[in-house]
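Cross-posting from the modeling subforum.

Setting up a comparison between two proteins and wanted a second pair of eyes on the formatting. Protein 1 (sequence, then structure tokens):
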Amino acid sequence: MTSISRPILSIIVPCYNEEAVLSVSVHELLSQLEILIVAHKVDAESYLCLTDDGSSDTTWEIIKQLSKNNSRVKGIHLSANFGHQNALLAGLFSEKNHADCLITIDADLQDDVTVIEQMIDKFAAGNKIVYGVRSNREKDTFLKRSSAQWYYKLLIRMGIKTIYNHADFRLASRQVIQNLERFNEVNLFLRGIFPLMGFKSDIVYYSRADRKLGNTKYPFRKMMSFAWQGITSFNTSLLRLVTITGVVMFILSMLTALWVLIAYISGNAVQGWASLLLITSLFSGINMISLGLIGEYVGKIFLEVKQRPRFIIEEETERKQQG
């Protein structure tokens, strides 16, 4: 088994309207990077890559200034807001040939930067992917904690490979990212793709902190949309459910028709519209839901066949080599 004793590490940080917290986060990440370099855990050429996802505030100006002041900071500016997952890809794909391993972490630093050292140790031991996993959700609200746990369990039941309580804080080797680039789908769910790839992996556990500054970029609406993306991008069980529901409804309609026929022959036909209205409403509702689910998958096919780029890099900063 081969191992890299002093890999070049690139820490990819997607940023969207993070002007309030970015300078503080970069200071903490650079401090952690310096600790790893001094301890000879990573090469002195290791660096940060800040990916601005089309921010509307001064995030990009801050990134350019940070890059100018520190040779271990590089900036990438996307031409528009392509979304968190695509911003991750932009950083990973642009830096995959310049680093031996790459770590993705959000700019708010709610993920514990001190466990990066454990990730590097596990990478040096031969693991190609190292997942950062939350040890608990005590700081979440009851609703968020319950919905997240229910969601992960649902993914597992649907046969979707995922890591319980893992978000997008992970280490991946250059080889993993080179293979990730072969996944061309627009409907992206990285939390499902990395386990699907099957490389040797390990886990580090940490406690998630509160956001220090700024506002969350994942309100409830976006979280629900992202959760739905994960379910529909990796599984066709919902389409199968439509078929099963159709079979059940057909059987119920046949039983209802038999009941009506028996009642008519025996002279006990029930007068009125209530039963007819209830049955019609039920069937109509199920039909609309079924059409909606089918439409969701057709919409995904529509997005995939257009093959639009997942991100566009408008500008990059120059990074001076160490020494």
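Protein 2 (same layout):
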Amino acid sequence: METVGFYIFYWISRVITLLPLKALYLLSDFLFLLLYYFPGYRRKVVITNHRNAFPGKSEKELADIRIKFYRHFCDLIVETLKLINISSEELAERMNYENPELLDKLFAEGRDVVLVYSHYCNWEWTSILPSFTGYKCIPVYRALNNKHFDRFMLRLRSKNKGTPVAMSAVIREILTNRKDNVKGLYGLIADQTPPRAEIQYRTRFLNQDTPVYLGAEKIALKYDMAVIFLNIRKLRRGYYSSKMELLFEHTSGLEKYFVTDTHVKRLEEIIVQKPEHWLWTHRRWKY
């Protein structure tokens, strides 16, 4: 039944994403009504997350953030599906990189890079990054439970010359690339919740004690990589701009947890400025 359900979803998605994004946003508007009102997709999770993250805001302010979030979330759904049928040229126009010269400089210096980003704005459209740099772009992922959706997402993330690699295989990938003298940019989404058994560190994030992954820090320190934070901004519907912020050019010898605390703090600053663009349906504090 799981397989049948996936293929129904897949072929419907292939057909409807032949439509331009302008038309797909009408579908997003309809999805908003379903997910926000009837009966509300993970609404209790979102309400709880907002109240805990922003204790100083009134219920009216939180309700305003919540509505804006669900509208953005529905846009994100159709934008992700549109990856099935969108050209690299159109995607590059819609997901712009402001300062690729930073990567040019690090590439010329022979530096490998850890790119830290999050479930903020549209992280799936960052798959166009290989068009802006000479780096081999390696988004590091954790497999989805549903094998069909896992393969589906891997195909989408590989369309624009990206080379997705499972977290369990990233060290082998680094060693292979270094042996072949290939400069690698390793992208890690750093705001996910580790399984309870894998929690090694907690920090303060959005007014809450929060377990965080240490993968980005461990890779950077072990191989003395530069660390860049990817700051994505939503300009308007269907258009984003990304700025690469150099957090560390060299990481060897840095104090333990310093890299992690730095990128977590930067993400918090961005979320506080525009909270509606973060993925609040995620059970980030389930432990």
